[in-house]
Write a structure and sequence with these properties.
alpha/beta; five-stranded mixed β-sheet; two-stranded antiparallel ribbon; 9 strands; elongated
């Protein structure tokens, strides 16, 4: 694991700077204590990082659960009751893992996964525009179209231009210039520029800028535009920030409903992220999905026990890890320790980091996820790839992650049905002699009930006086619905003077009396 420490350590620093505002922002958007977001980030990095089979995935509090958490804290009668739901949700995730429910991850179409990555990239860019200019009423990590501050993604951007903070904007521009210079030029000049990452330099410049300009009325950055980590006075006040679940409420059915909702949504988000990060992984490693559910369940149990938010694997942090050169799970684990040590020892220093500088870092992450060239690539692959991709992107931007994925998946299923309809059989008109049409129909390797319409339409359109050869030699699976269609057609064929020649691996049958009886004698797979 330590073989790639020179890659994982710099990547973990970048992930730390990406995760810090997201942990705080998601907690704020969820109506939970700020410290609960940090707990989830720490557990997601250290505990889930150790238990997970993913080498480049990073876990923490998820934006997709913010609305569920906000509602649940209010309806369950307090944060301690909600924490019980988090613990139980983790237990349910363990059950999902034991039942091997992780196989669901392999059924998401590639076009939808690519649309998810692109949509999240666009959302990151759009959501960071207000923070970049020093307008921060909506917390970091609120990725839904309709925001917790009452505005939507685009109305917030419009409102930003009436509330620009000169100091925050200037340091953001400087930070973005440093990041681009580091990425495009300096990282290719020597090993030192790979070891010391651009985001770290940008953050240090941001801290220096804040301290130099804090007395300036024009360029000074006010506290509401800064990172806001809780600052404990001593060890006892630090420990007092931890909360514990109320196990006395375990009989409340609403808590179990919330627990199952958390488990289901967190598992889906995790599996989607696993599939996406595996696609981004330069080494093309495959994450064991059932082990990932067990790791996430373990993380949620521990997070809930000590006052943390629900955890999932998160694409923003994972993609930042990959883009920064992370090679193994050590990057995720170290980022968790960075979160833990920093909130314990240097919260005052963290609170000198302008949010606008962190927005510049997220700009780069978002752009690398949503490169314009990908749209052309998907378009060139044809409408069957481009339409689900585009629907997923639009759905994520104008709703939220899960709804966008659901819309893309629905369109993807329709595309599969259309392809299945089109590819059930192949028709070949051989000749027409002595008033008799000779037609050969070859069935595909698998013919299911999805193909009923296409085959029925083809059979009904055959002219009278036809000699039809049905070739099923390559067919490995023939649905009972199709066999019944053929059986009904055989009865009608006599009235239309249509002769049928059935060619299979068992030989040739002329005008079979019953297709149902014939296929009963064939091996089950055929």
């Amino acid at each position: 694991m330590f073989k790639y420490l020179k890659n994982d350590l710099p990547a973990s620093i970048v992930v730390f700077f990406v995760a810090l505002p997201l942990c705080l922002g998601i907690a704020l958007a969820s109506g939970a204590p700020l410290f609960s977001g940090l707990i989830a980030g720490i557990i997601g990095g250290i505990v889930v990082g150790v238990a997970s089979g993913s080498q480049i995935g990073v876990s923490g509090p998820a934006a997709g659960l913010a609305a569920i958490v906000l509602t649940a804290i209010g309806t369950l009668g307090g944060f301690e009751n909600f924490l019980l739901a988090v613990v139980l949700g983790g237990v349910i995730q363990l059950v999902f893992g034991i039942l091997k429910a992780g196989i669901i991850a392999y059924y998401f179409p590639s076009s939808v996964i690519k649309g998810m990555l692109t949509g999240i990239g666009i959302i990151i860019i759009l959501k960071q525009i207000p923070h970049f200019f020093g307008y921060d009423p909506d917390p970091e990590g609120d990725f839904a179209f309709f925001q917790v501050d009452g505005k939507n993604t685009f109305s917030e951007i419009i409102e930003t231009f009436n509330n620009i903070s000169p100091g925050a904007t200037l340091v953001a521009v400087i930070g973005l210039a440093i990041l681009i210079l580091w990425d495009k030029v300096l990282s290719k000049k020597g090993k030192v520029f790979k070891l010391i990452q651009g985001p770290l330099v940008a953050v240090v410049v941001g801290i220096i800028f804040f301290n130099i300009t804090k007395e300036s009325s024009l360029w000074g950055i006010s506290s509401d535009h800064m990172v806001s980590v809780p600052i404990p006075k001593d060890a006892s006040s630090f420990l007092a920030q931890f909360s514990f679940p109320n196990f006395g409420a375990i009989g409340n059915p609403q808590i179990w409903i919330t627990a199952f909702t958390i488990a289901l949504v967190a598992s889906l988000e995790t599996l989607l992220c696993v599939e996406a990060t595996d696609k981004l992984d330069p080494d093309k490693r495959v994450t064991p999905t059932n082990r990932e559910l067990l790791a996430q369940g373990t993380g949620n149990i521990i997070s809930g026990l000590i006052g943390g938010l629900p955890i999932t694997q998160v694409i923003v942090r994972s993609s930042a890890n990959i883009q920064s050169g992370g090679k193994t799970k050590l990057a995720a684990i170290i980022h968790g320790f960075f979160l833990l040590i920093s909130v314990m020892l240097i919260p005052t220093l963290l609170n000198m980091i302008p949010l606008s500088v962190l927005a510049a870092i997220l700009f780069i992450v978002g752009f690398k996820l949503a490169k314009p060239a990908l749209f052309k690539q998907m378009y060139d692959m044809g409408w069957k790839q481009f339409v689900p991709f585009t629907v997923t992107v639009i759905g994520i931007v104008f709703t939220d992650l899960l709804i966008g994925i659901g819309l893309g998946l629905a369109v993807g299923i329709v595309v599969i049905l259309i392809k299945s309809y089109q590819n059930s059989h192949f028709l070949h008109i051989e000749d027409q002699s002595n008033g008799m049409h000779r037609i050969k129909m070859t069935f595909a390797e698998e013919v299911t009930f999805f193909n009923k319409g296409a085959i029925l339409k083809e059979l009904d359109s055959l002219p009278r006086d036809t000699y039809l050869e049905l070739d099923v030699r390559k067919t490995r699976y023939l649905d009972n619905d199709i066999i019944e269609i053929l059986d009904d057609f055989a009865f009608k064929a006599k009235e239309r003077n249509i002769d049928i020649k059935l060619t299979s691996e068992r030989g040739v049958v002329e005008n079979p009396d019953s297709f149902i009886e014939f296929f009963k004698l064939r091996p089950k797979s055929a």
